[in-house]
Q: What sequence folds into this?
């Protein structure tokens, strides 16, 4: 038995009803709901474990009312920390553990959100290669070129809402696209509605996005939508006083302010 | 062509707060300061109330320019609505820049209830700027956009 | 289906001179949903209003748009008109055709076109309007006043004299505050205690005032009209009902060397003590930190000698719960800790004292019975140097502001000294003399011209002792910075006024804002100087900033009027233009997901957490709820809500959306 399996078995024997983790799939690791000690041997943890399991935590129909444990990757931990700061995590029913980077497969269980937050303090949030390339491509473009690039990208959106479903922080019970008084955004695919939808997603993620890339990965037509939130996350961090990948302590960066906030466009 | 441009009358919507800029624009009137007819004011309780979606909707419905204005920092009737708004505009404007929206078409300003003359100047300047930029069809055209074949990899 | 009435006002010629009002009315009559459209010379006149009322009744109008002057002018007038005709007043909107159109544009087609689109915009808004009813909040007509200095005393008396119940709490054993420590007051030189003590007694005897001394605010809940407060009654160890105030206990107490707070450390007191002879109430308390029994477990001498058996050791603090409708905060100020000035030798040299200590020396009730004597040797000083702005207006020391009262009290101190020590010499080092106030400048001139106080413009760099004298080294900037050196017998520092201890914690308890110096912030520095941003909580006195007595008293009376005004109605009626979090049918209950971003965005702490429970009492979800008593209607929360679960009445998402779309599509 490896350390992960040992941990899973002991948790399941001590009253935990479900462990969210990963198992081997056709294309690398895929999410796995482990209910019994017998299944624990299927649990794996490797660099292919990229699905953000935090997405499942907010779904009561999946979680039930029992104690649940999560085998969390770094991006899952970041999502949990952010969700906790938004009052979305019931700590008493959740056990979070991770496989530490140091050591060979050591399991670390967190005592609570505070410990997750401090664990994340020295974990730098990297920018994906795809985004770096896009950054380079876009930086050479004129405004008009950028505009036609994004208009074209957004026009390909089929409004499947996979990005919304994959994002651990898109947890509204009623999305703005479902609001019809007024109908802010066309819920069906349309070039203008698509653009408004994506702008909304990014604005709703300001100071909240944890840069896990789940949205980009989920997009079936391959729009690099996560780039926008990710870029905003980095660009605004200094101005708004947060560290990308870490939850803010006293409220979201958009719903708080400093009297000395700087801008250069309000005259 | 030149002739056409000079006939272009931009449509500009102003999103203003009730306590400072709306009152400031009232003072412009009381002072009989003249300005262009292109700007029409929508009254909000506070700049903090102004949803960025309304700005997008203004462009989508054919606005060539937008003015957003409220109380100066520290003067907000509600203490901090304008501070919240300022952060929102910092983020929103940055995003628009990333995707290539022509941010020159949104004029952010602080106009107090005493700055009647400033409001008049702001309107005239904005109208002149937008007139120079021309109609913002680039934005409304999105609605009819058809994906380019060669971009479809 | 909407039936909207449109009424275009000519405003004499104010509108009709540049706008073709008749055409505006005609064009509007073609708009969907408009049932009646007319123009008239003066809509706000009696016949104009009658016209509106009749049209509402005759055409069963469901909404009204008036194209007239600014809504900031006549919105209320026209809403009242509609209400009189039976239409909900919030179904009436004003299109600003005068200030925003006719007065700012030349006569012409474009101006009329703009007027038409402004009215159309409001027609679209009215279509989305909902009838609203004003918010009524019941009011508990009892006020809590925190702090029994002159501000709290004045506010309590004024509220009580309006016939309302007042609870006054004071953290010290007696009310009176800093004013009771003062000798004489500028600019009239009347004795502070002589004018204060009658008011202190009045407070104690007033049938509408309940006084709790040695009491502090523990917690506050609720909102305007209905605060629930918990007051901590600190254990006095003396039963005030039994105690007659005979003073035997204090005279027998073995702990006699405790520095007296009342005398600013220049005198001593016992562990069981009455802070000063005129204290109200005049009953002692035991200072547990210095009491032999509390510290070492034995003594109880006071208990043995008490003729009425009033001493009760080991009683715990009591927590008292009260419901009040308004709170007045009058917690006052403090003077800067003088360890701030190593260069002036305070604490090192006994004869370098603060202004407050000088007050005690000059006071007839003070440690020297009003004679100016040096703390070190009891000698009468022949030369005193007063240092103004000791800490104030000194950004390097962290206090850039002017403490306001120092110029005046320093002039007073020098004057009192000259009156008491005729052959004495007094010097005042100052930066500027700020004597703005009734008879203030005259007072300072009197000190200089009649009493011979010598004013030196410049800062004191250092004070040190040499041969029993205090050497004051400074510069006279009026003489081009020439060095000045004075051999003084005593130095008095006009130390800066700073916020009181614990001001920050108190503000956080009450959710009121405070500035970077921990002074409490008023809702508007000019127009709402005694209100806080939290409705129902008012401010007065030096807890806002250093203030002199006249300003403090007028502020206190102002706060009292605000309270009395609030209490003059049985229900607090407020405009319903506030935010509301939606509620819907189970199992959703509300589309709010409880992220509470709105909570940090709200400047008024109006967002509350509401737990939605099932029949078993289990919490299903926690959602936001707006406290209608606190919300002021800025709508900042609305723009933040991602799921659009909060909306603001009067400026709803639907209304604003309709306005924008209308403006651009006609």
A:
């Amino acid at each position: 038995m490896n350390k992960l399996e040992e941990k899973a078995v002991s948790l399941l024997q001590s009253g935990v009803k479900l462990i969210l983790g990963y198992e081997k799939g056709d294309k690398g690791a895929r999410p796995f709901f482990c209910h019994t000690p017998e299944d624990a041997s299927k649990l794996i943890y490797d660099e292919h474990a990229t699905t953000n399991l935090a997405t499942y935590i907010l779904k009561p129909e999946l979680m039930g009312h029992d104690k649940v444990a999560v085998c969390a990757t770094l991006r899952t931990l970041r999502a949990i920390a952010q969700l906790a700061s938004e009052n979305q995590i019931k700590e008493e029913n959740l056990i979070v553990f991770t496989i530490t980077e140091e050591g060979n497969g050591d399991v670390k269980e967190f005592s609570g959100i505070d410990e997750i937050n401090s664990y994340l303090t020295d974990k730098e949030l990297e920018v994906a290669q795809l985004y770096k390339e896009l950054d380079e491509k876009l930086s050479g473009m004129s405004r008009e070129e950028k505009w036609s690039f994004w208009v074209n990208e957004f026009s390909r959106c089929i409004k499947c809402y996979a990005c919304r479903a994959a994002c651990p922080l898109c947890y509204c019970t009623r999305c703005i696209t479902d609001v019809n008084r007024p109908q802010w955004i066309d819920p069906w695919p349309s070039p203008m509605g698509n653009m408004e939808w994506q702008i909304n997603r990014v604005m709703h993620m300001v100071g909240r996005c944890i840069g896990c890339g789940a949205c980009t990965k989920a997009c079936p037509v391959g729009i690099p939508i996560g780039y926008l939130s990710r870029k905003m996350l980095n660009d605004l961090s200094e101005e708004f006083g947060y560290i990308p990948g870490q939850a803010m302590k006293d409220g979201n960066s958009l719903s708080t302010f400093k009297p000395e906030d700087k801008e250069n466009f309000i005259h | 062509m030149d002739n056409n441009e000079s006939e272009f009358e931009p449509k500009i919507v102003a999103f203003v707060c009730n306590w400072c800029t709306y009152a400031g624009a009232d003072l412009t009137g009381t002072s009989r300061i003249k300005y262009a007819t292109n700007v029409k004011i929508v009254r909000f309780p506070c700049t903090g109330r102004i949803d960025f979606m309304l700005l997008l909707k203004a462009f989508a419905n054919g606005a060539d320019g937008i003015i957003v204005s409220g109380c100066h920092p520290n003067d907000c009737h509600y203490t901090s609505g304008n501070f919240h708004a300022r952060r929102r505009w910092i983020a929103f404007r940055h995003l628009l820049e990333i995707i290539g929206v022509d941010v020159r078409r949104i004029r952010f300003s602080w106009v107090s209830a005493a700055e009647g003359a400033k409001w008049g100047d702001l309107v005239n300047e904005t109208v002149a700027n937008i007139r120079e930029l021309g109609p913002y069809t680039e934005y409304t055209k999105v609605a009819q956009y058809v994906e380019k074949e060669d971009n479809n990899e | 289906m909407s039936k909207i009435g449109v009424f275009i006002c000519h405003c004499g010629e104010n509108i009709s001179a540049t706008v073709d009002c008749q055409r505006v009315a005609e064009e509007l009559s073609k708009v969907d949903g408009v049932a009646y459209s007319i123009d008239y010379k003066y809509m706000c006149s009696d016949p104009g209003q009658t016209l509106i009322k009749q049209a509402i009744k005759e055409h069963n109008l469901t909404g009204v748009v008036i194209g007239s002057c600014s809504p900031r002018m006549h919105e209320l007038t026209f809403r009242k008109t509609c209400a009189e005709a039976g239409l909900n007043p919030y179904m009436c909107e004003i299109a600003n055709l005068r200030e925003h159109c006719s007065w700012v544009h030349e006569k012409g087609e474009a101006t009329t076109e703009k007027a038409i689109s402004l009215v159309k915009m409001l027609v679209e808004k009215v279509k989305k309007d909902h009838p609203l009813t004003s918010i009524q909040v019941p009011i508990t007509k009892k006020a809590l006043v925190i702090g029994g200095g002159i501000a709290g005393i004045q506010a309590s008396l004024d509220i009580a004299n309006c016939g309302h119940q007042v609870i006054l709490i004071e953290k010290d054993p007696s009310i009176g505050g800093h004013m009771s420590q003062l000798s004489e007051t500028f600019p009239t030189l009347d004795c502070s205690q002589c004018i204060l003590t009658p008011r202190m007694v009045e407070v104690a005897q007033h049938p509408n005032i309940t006084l709790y001394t040695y009491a502090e605010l523990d917690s506050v809940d609720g909102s305007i009209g209905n605060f629930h407060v918990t007051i901590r009654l600190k254990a006095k160890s003396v039963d005030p009902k039994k105690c007659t105030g005979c003073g035997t206990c204090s005279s027998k107490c073995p702990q006699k060397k405790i520095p007296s707070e009342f005398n600013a450390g220049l005198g001593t007191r016992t562990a069981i003590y009455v802070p000063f002879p005129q204290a109200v109430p005049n009953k002692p308390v035991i200072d547990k930190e210095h009491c032999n029994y509390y510290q070492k477990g034995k003594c109880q001498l006071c208990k043995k000698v008490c003729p009425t058996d009033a001493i009760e050791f080991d009683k715990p603090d009591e927590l008292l719960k009260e419901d009040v409708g308004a709170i007045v905060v009058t917690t006052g100020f403090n003077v800067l800790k003088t360890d701030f000035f190593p260069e002036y030798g305070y604490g090192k040299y006994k004869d370098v004292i603060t202004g407050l200590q000088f007050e005690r020396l000059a006071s007839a009730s003070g440690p020297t019975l009003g004679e100016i004597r040096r703390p070190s040797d009891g000698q009468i000083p022949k030369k005193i140097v007063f240092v103004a702005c000791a800490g104030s207006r000194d950004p390097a020391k962290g206090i850039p502001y002017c403490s306001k009262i120092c110029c005046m009290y320093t002039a007073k101190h020098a004057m009192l000294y000259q009156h008491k020590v005729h052959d004495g010499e007094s010097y005042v080092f100052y930066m500027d003399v700020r004597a703005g106030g009734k008879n203030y400048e005259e007072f300072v001139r009197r000190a200089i011209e009649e009493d011979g106080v010598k004013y030196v413009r410049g800062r004191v760099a250092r004070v040190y002792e040499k041969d029993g004298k205090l050497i004051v080294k400074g510069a006279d900037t009026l003489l081009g910075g020439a060095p000045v050196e004075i051999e003084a017998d005593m130095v008095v520092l006009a130390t800066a006024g700073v916020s009181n201890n614990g001001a920050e914690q108190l503000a956080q308890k009450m959710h009121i804002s405070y500035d970077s110096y921990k002074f409490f912030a008023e809702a508007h520095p000019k127009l709402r100087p005694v209100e806080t941003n939290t409705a129902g909580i008012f401010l007065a006195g030096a807890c806002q900033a250093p203030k002199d007595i006249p300003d403090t008293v007028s502020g206190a009376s102002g706060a009292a009027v605000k309270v009395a005004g609030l209490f003059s109605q049985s229900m607090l009626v407020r405009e319903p233009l506030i935010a509301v979090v939606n509620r819907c049918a189970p199992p959703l209950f509300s589309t709010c997901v409880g992220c509470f971003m709105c909570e940090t965005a709200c400047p008024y702490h109006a967002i509350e957490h509401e737990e939605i429970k099932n029949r078993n009492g289990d919490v299903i979800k926690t959602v936001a709820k707006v406290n209608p008593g606190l919300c002021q209607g800025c709508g900042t929360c609305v723009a933040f809500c991602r799921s659009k679960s909060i909306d603001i009445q009067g400026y709803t998402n639907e209304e604003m959306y309709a306005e924008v779309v209308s403006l651009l599509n006609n």
Remarks:
- The longest helix of chain C spans residues 109-128.
- Chain C is about 30% helix and 25% strand.
